[in-house]
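Researcher: Good morning. I'm working through a list of sequences from a screen, and I'd like to move beyond sequence-only analysis. For each chain I'm collecting a predicted structure so we can compare shapes side by side. This is the next one on the list. No need for commentary yet; just the structure.
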Amino acid sequence: MDGSLKQDENDVRLELKYCEQCGGLWLRECGAGVVYCPSCQPKVAELPIPKKKPHRVNLPVGKRAWVESYKVVRGKPGEEGLEAIGGVAWAR
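Model: Good morning. C-alpha cells for this chain:
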C-alpha cells in the first residue's frame, strides 16, 4: 500500500484477535478492548469474579492493514466472517 487511501467517516477499522477463553480467531473493532469472542462472552460472564486483579500486560502494536473492500459472509451461527473482494486472503 502506498498510504494514499483516504479514510471515510463510515469506515470501520478491524483487528484480528484471539479469544482468551477458547483460543479462536475473530475480528473486533480496533481499540474495543473485548478479549472474548461472541460465543464465549456469555460463558465468561457467568464465572465468579477473581479476588485479586490480574496484572495487565501491554503488547507492542505494529502497523494496521487496510482492506479496500469486503463483504460480510453469512453462514451457520459461528461461521460468519468477512471476505475480501478482489483480494487473495479471506477470513471466516
